[in-house]
Design a protein that fits this description.
single chain; mainly alpha; Na+/H+ antiporter like fold; globular
C-alpha cells in the first residue's frame, strides 16, 4: 500500500489535471452534468475526512495555542487581502451585481478544501485546521461590513448565516470527529490500523473526484452568463497570482516558520466559493450572473491550486512530492 500511495502522490498533479479537464469537458457536453452539484458536498466531506486522517489530530490543542500563527492568518485574510480586493474591484465595470459576485468570493477565505491543498503543498495543515472556526466566525461578522463599505448598505443585507454554518458542520466538524475516531481506533487495534492505512490511499483519488464534480457541475452556469464571467477573469487571475505571494511574505516578515507560512499562503489564495454559492441564489435578480461569476473563480482557483502545490513549497527551498 505504501508503494501505491507514493505513486499517487508523485502523480497527483497529473491526476488532478485529468480530473479538471475531463470535468470541464463533461460539463460542456453532457446535458445533465449540472445535476452533479448535489453530490459535491458529500464528496467534499469524504475528501476532508481522508485528509484529516493524515493530520495528527491529537496535536490540535497545541495548534490552537499558536497565537502568532492565528494572528498572522487573520491579519492576512481580513486586513491585507480585503485591501487588495478593494483595489482590484475598481478595475471592474461599474455594475453592482458583478462587483457583488466578485466580492462575495474574494472576501471569504476557504474553510474546507484549503486544508487538503495545504497538506499536499507541505504546509502545516494542522495549524490551518485548528484555525477554521476563527476563519468562519470572522468572515460571517466582517463580510456584511466589507460589503457595506464597498457597495453600500443594501448589499450588506444580502449575507445569510445558513450556508456558512451548514458548511462548517458537515464539511469540517463531522469529518473531523470521524477522522479522530478512526485515528483513536488505529492507535488501539491492529484492525483499526489496517483500515487507517487503507484509507490513506484515498486523499488523491478523493480530491480528483471533487475536482471532476465541481468542474462538471459549474461549467453550465458559466455558459449562462459568459460575458460577465469573462469580465471577472483578469481580476481573479491577478488575485491568484498576488495572494499566495502576499500571504507568504506577510507570514515570513512576521517570523512564521516555513510550514506555517505555507499554510498562510494557501489560505490567502484559496477562497470560499462553494460555500458562498448559495448566497448567490438568494440575491434578488442575481441569477444567472452572480453564480456564473462566482464559479468562474472556482475554476481559476482549482487550476491555480495545481500550481501552488508545486510552487509554494519551493519558496522555502523544499520541493513538494
Amino acid at each position: 500500500m505504501a508503494q501505491v500511495r507514493a505513486v499517487l502522490e508523485v502523480r497527483q498533479v497529473a491526476i488532478y489535471f485529468v480530473a479538471i479537464t475531463s470535468g470541464a469537458f463533461a460539463g460542456l457536453t453532457v446535458s445533465k452534468a449540472g445535476a452533479l452539484e448535489v453530490v459535491i458536498n458529500p464528496a467534499l466531506a469524504v475528501m476532508l475526512f481522508v485528509t484529516f486522517l493524515q493530520v495528527p489530530l491529537a496535536e490540535l490543542g497545541a495548534a490552537l495555542r499558536n497565537t502568532r500563527f492565528l494572528g498572522v492568518l487573520l491579519v492576512t485574510n481580513f486586513v491585507i487581502m480585503p485591501t487588495v480586493t478593494a483595489v482590484l474591484v475598481q478595475f471592474l465595470p461599474d455594475d453592482p451585481m458583478l462587483r457583488l459576485a466578485v466580492l462575495f468570493v474574494l472576501l471569504t477565505p476557504c474553510i474546507d478544501y484549503v486544508v487538503t491543498f495545504t497538506h499536499l503543498g507541505r504546509g502545516d495543515a494542522r495549524l490551518l485546521l485548528a484555525a477554521t472556526p476563527a476563519l468562519l466566525l470572522f468572515q460571517i461578522v466582517l463580510l456584511p461590513i466589507f460589503l457595506r463599505l464597498l457597495l453600500g448598505s443594501d448589499a450588506s443585507d444580502l449575507v445569510q448565516l445558513g450556508p456558512f454554518i451548514h458548511a462548517f458542520i458537515w464539511l469540517i466538524a463531522v469529518p473531523l470527529v470521524l477522522a479522530g475516531a478512526v485515528q483513536l481506533w488505529a492507535a488501539q487495534t491492529t484492525s483499526g490500523d489496517r483500515v487507517a492505512t487503507a484509507l490513506g490511499l484515498l486523499p488523491v483519488p478523493a480530491t480528483a473526484l471533487v475536482l471532476f464534480l465541481v468542474l462538471a457541475s459549474v461549467m453550465p452556469r458559466i455558459a449562462e452568463a459568459g460575458t460577465a464571467a469573462l469580465t471577472a477573469v483578469p481580476i481573479y487571475v491577478a488575485y491568484a497570482v498576488l495572494a499566495p505571494v502576499i500571504g507568504w511574505l506577510t507570514a515570513r516578515s512576521l517570523r512564521l516558520e516555513p510550514t506555517a507560512a505555507r499554510a498562510v499562503s494557501f489560505s490567502a489564495a484559496t477562497r470560499n466559493s462553494l460555500v458562498v454559492l448559495p448566497l448567490a441564489f438568494a440575491v434578488p435578480g442575481g441569477v444567472p450572473l452572480i453564480p456564473a461569476v462566482i464559479v468562474t473563480q472556482t475554476i481559476i482557483e482549482l487550476v491555480s491550486e495545481l500550481l501552488y502545490v508545486r510552487w509554494i513549497p519551493r519558496l522555502s527551498g523544499r520541493p513538494a512530492i
